[in-house]
Amino acid sequence: MTDYDVLRVFCGPNGGHGNALGVVRDGSVLPGRSDRQALAAELGFSETVFVDDPERGAIDIYTPTLRLPFAGHPCVGTAWLLDVPELRTPAGVVGARLDGEFSWIEARAEWAPPRTLRRHATPAEVDALDVPPPGEWIYAWAWEDEAAGRIRARAFPGRGDGIDEDEATGAAAILLTEQLGRALNITQGKGSQILTAPQPHGWVEIGGRVFLERQALTAPRGRQA
């Protein structure tokens, strides 16, 4: 049995929605990559984080099928949980800060995995999209209010791992912010909120609300936690 926390990251203004994240605070209980990958698959979250050094902010991130050098919503959530000034990921050092109800990180767009950023004419078009077949990782978006930087978005990982749609995805929001070159207020999924802002020298800041959903133990093998 393994202790882990379940967070919701990028919650809406009323505290609802957000993308679920599993965090194993004591990564030493599962030091091997194969064991971590198996647990991430068992838990079934879009990402699960293993904390290898809470004081230094050293973390290791997994989807149900692969290890990631960096991911946005896991970093935002884990930075909030550990309350540290930075996180150490395989991609690089991620700056972190808390500002009122928002947890912020600062990262580089080149750390984000490739995404297909697909613009649509209206938010209604984005809302009407069906989940595409496995293949491309698609971030579908449209302007809600271009002057105000407000965007409607949905994310389709296309990995075939049971995560047909991500409720809130930081890495894709970082890529979109770099492409558009401006601060964004993104409503994604069923009502999650992501805030971003480009920073000097190729950095992008991204933030959102984080809530601790529950603390739990892994279920016996073969059962969902």
UniProtKB/TrEMBL annotation:
InterPro entries: Phenazine_PhzF-like
GO molecular function: catalytic activity
Catalytic machinery residues: E47
Domain of life the protein comes from: Bacteria
Protein name (database record): PhzF family phenazine biosynthesis protein
Species this protein is from: Streptomyces alanosinicus
